[in-house]
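We give this protein:

***
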Amino acid sequence: MTGLALSLQPKPFEPAISIASRIAMKLCVPSVSDCLRDLGVNWPLFRSGQPKEIEHFAEIIVTDSAALLHESLTPRSRGQFSFRDHILDRRAVNRREVKLCPRCIMEDHERDGPLGRYGRTYWQLTQFRTCPRHAVPLTSLPQMPASQYVLDFARVVERNFVGRVSEVVEI
């Protein structure tokens, strides 16, 4: 299979779902789920973090699957997740809302523009309430109408954060 050479590569601490969201935005596809389906990736399996689908996606975008898996939350038995070779209880993982560090997002934007804004896996961990880099509180963005959109990081940030930048960054 020939890979799709997209000029976006994963950033430090970026999970597979975030890079997929940025690629969907770059390709002007309305949602990450539509984009992945168009690329031949099984959206429900990818969304849940199944390693085989993340590996398939990595092959399509021509990137290191081990790096994507390392930064992604993968499901385990009994509602647990695996992250960086650690087992996490379901309560340790927040997959219901988008949390971010406003300063990280602003730096991403200043460095690489709108497609440079990306999610960090540790923002999804409930024990993180402040940014480890900037020591500012993480911000929760408004929920979207459909639960699948909480995983479409690039779109949620574009719709809900960009207009509020000045009020949020003055923390």
Remarks:
- The chain has a mean pLDDT of 87.
- The first strand starts at residue 74 and ends at 75.
- The chain has eight helices and five strands.
